[in-house]
Write a structure and sequence with these properties.
Oligomer: single chain
CATH class of the largest domain: Alpha Beta
CATH architecture of the largest domain: Alpha-Beta Barrel
Order of helices and strands: HEEEHEEHEEHEHEHEHHEHEHHE
Bound molecules: iron/sulfur cluster
Structural class: alpha/beta
CATH topology of the largest domain: TIM Barrel
Mean pLDDT: 92
Strand content: 15-25%
CATH superfamily of the largest domain: Aldolase class I
């Protein structure tokens, strides 16, 4: 991935940091979809599946299983940011120049994050358009895409011009005023509800709950194409208190459906790769019985699980 640092004023177009464009997804919306992952998030959940998305800034990822200990990376690093003992990249020294990535013959290093304009992103998306005939389209994910409202607005307009269906995934902590211009145009909004107790929410994901709930209520009560989702995380979001609170909240805003997203720990592997600060929870996956029981609890309360 080539890092392009380009200030907004030089291009006349808003920019945003993107760390991946994944093709041929059959999740995250209808049909065959292309997923765009933005870098940067305003929450920090310990169960995050994309720890490489947390920081807005580009980062260098290290894949230990590919490393042949040639240490050409160490030789080319003018900042002495690479420490071969235990292989650490000193993020305080690293300028993310990418020289080590170029030097590695084994693809053990990768630059994560590049700055794009909506037009540049659109150029990449358009190659996938034939697959969107499946009823698919683009889903903006992250990280938190609503951190870049000007970029997303422009990109959604470009998609509309090309007849491309757009979905967006959000954790809901955004400025409604800044985001309404594109929320009014997207075809699908996946809105995550995590922890419904304000104190626990702040303790667990690091930010308050009030804005999230008021945004959820606004979208649900004003006819937006919003679908709510809950990541099921053992001991965090699947407690009786949290499930009861989620049911009560959804009913209070007149919504009767909820996507349940099963916890898996694949994100924890990536924490080491990007030297992330995220805590490893070390939780086991759900049994089929436990998942069925959670789904039944929602169903019996009048909320249809998906
Ligand atoms: S250049 Fe690549 S293979 Fe060699 S030590 Fe660095 S990361 Fe490992
Ligand atoms: S990106 Fe540049 S500064 Fe950072 S470790 Fe690699 S060579 Fe050194």
């Amino acid at each position: 991935m080539v890092l392009v640092k380009r200030p907004v004023e030089l291009t006349g177009s808003p920019t945003a940091p993107v760390f991946d464009v994944q093709r041929f997804s059959i999740h995250d919306g209808p049909g065959i979809r292309t997923l765009v992952f933005f870098k940067g998030c305003n929450l920090h959940c310990d169960w995050c599946q994309n720890p490489e998305a947390h920081d807005v800034q580009p980062t260098v990822a290290f894949y230990a299983d590919r490393c042949q200990e040639s240490f050409s990376c160490e030789e080319v690093c003018s900042e002495q940011a690479i420490n071969r003992s235990g292989f650490r990249i000193n993020v305080d020294r690293c300028t993310v120049c990418g020289d080590c990535v170029e030097s590695c013959a084994y693809s053990a290093l990768r630059l994560i994050g590049e700055t794009l304009t909506p037009e540049e992103l659109m150029d990449r998306i358009l190659t996938d358009k034939p697959y969107f005939d499946s009823g698919g389209g683009v889903t903006l994910s992250g990280g938190e895409p609503t951190l870049y409202p000007k970029f997303v607005s422009r990109f959604v307009d470009l998609c509309a011009r090309s007849g491309i269906h757009v979905g967006i995934e959000t954790a809901g902590r955004f400025s409604l005023e800044k985001c309404l211009p594109f929320l009014e145009k997207v075809d699908l909004i996946y809105f995550d509800l995590k922890i419904l107790d304000p104190h626990q929410h702040e303790q667990t994901v690091g930010k308050g709950l009030k804005t999230i709930l008021s945004n959820a209520e606004y979208l649900a009560k004003n006819g937006f194409p919003v679908e709510f989702r809950m990541p099921l995380v053992p001991g965090y979001t699947d407690t009786k208190e949290n499930i009861d609170a989620a049911i009560a909240f959804l009913k209070s805003i007149g919504h009767q459906k909820l996507h349940l997203l099963e916890y898996h720990n694949m994100g924890e592997v990536k924490i080491d790769i990007v030297q992330g600060k995220q805590r490893k929870l070390g939780l086991s996956r759900y049994t089929a019985e436990r998942l069925a029981a959670i789904a039944q609890t929602f169903e019996q309360a009048g909320i249809t699980p998906r």
